[in-house]
Specification:
Helices cover about 70% and strands about 5% of the residues. By secondary structure, the protein is mostly helical.
Amino acid sequence: MHLWQTVLVNKVEELRYLVLAAQREGSRALTDALRPLGVTPAQAEVLTVVRAATGPLSVREIGELLVCETGSPSRLVTNLITAGLLHGTRDVTDGRITRLSLTAAGRRTARQVLATEREFERHLSSDIPDDPALDVVVDFLRRFVADSPSGRALARRRVQEGDARGS
């Protein structure tokens, strides 16, 4: 291996660990910020996904939009139903499917989650310089995760957000 290849490998390894460290630190900080609302970051993500939807969603549809959980979000959904934040109704065309929507308490909590996340993002953005390199990093990370369940979930959410803005 040439010296320049060793340097590149070391930078890639460092990037991998920096992303992991940033994710862990960000997750800890977001957990602390959401604690007063009584929800975890994963639960907050479910509330955000359901709030952004144009109608009630099935558990499968929620799962397709989540980054926090790559498997079935059944446990998350069940905990949110138990907490009184989600309500399930049987699908009118297929009684095997439960459609989930926010309760009144869920709508309030989802609004509080949105405000908390926006403040969290404002705080983070104060530490990020307005630099074109950020676009390069975001584009790289999008490509890196594009073929993963999380990457596909993020892409679906970007499309939904674009559809919502266009309405």
